[in-house]
Specification:
By secondary structure, this protein is an alpha+beta fold. It is built from 4 helices and 6 strands. Strands 1-6-5-4-3-2 form a 6-stranded antiparallel β-sheet, covered by helices on one side. Helix 1 crosses helix 2 and helix 1 crosses helix 4. It starts with a strand and ends with a helix.
């Protein structure tokens, strides 16, 4: 079996699991911190994330995904694939663990082929993007909290 490259994030956020879960599963909020999408929390639901194409890694701007599994406010597991030359066929898993008055957020994007130069480059680029995702989630949730008060 070929070993694959993985991106991992481990971050504490000062929000309850229900709030982070909403940021992960509400299509509007998800689109604000990640990418526009047609996500629906339903096992087997096929959806896409749409962004600007990145020709250097043969990414057409569309991530083709499917909800594989979930446990409300605990875990969301999806497939994440790119079509064409890139050939990325990976999975993303978010886990939420309550901690003090907040939540420990774990994210793993696994399945990058270390033998595929396009996927190696995609791994490097996506590592930087995923690294900032907890901060983006926190910003969206802070904005939602302010909006709820008005």
């Amino acid at each position: 079996m070929t070993e694959t490259l993985t991106i991992q994030i481990d971050q504490y956020l000062p929000y309850a699991p229900a709030q982070i879960w909403k940021a992960l599963t509400d299509p509007d909020l998800l689109g604000r911190w990640l990418m526009p999408n047609d996500f629906k929390l339903e096992i087997g639901h096929h959806f896409t994330f749409k962004n600007v194409p990145i020709p250097s890694v043969k990414f057409d701007g569309i991530a083709y995904c499917e909800v594989l599994d979930f446990e409300i406010e605990r875990k969301l597991h999806i497939s994440w694939a790119a079509r064409g030359e890139n050939g990325l066929n990976s999975t993303v898993t978010w886990r939420l663990e309550p901690e003090d008055s907040g939540t420990h957020l774990f994210m793993e994007h696994a399945g990058f082929d270390p033998e595929n130069p396009l996927q190696q480059r995609a791994h490097q680029m996506m590592s930087q993007g995923w690294l900032h995702s907890p901060q983006h989630i926190a910003e969206i949730l802070a904005a939602e909290k302010v909006a709820d008060r008005t």
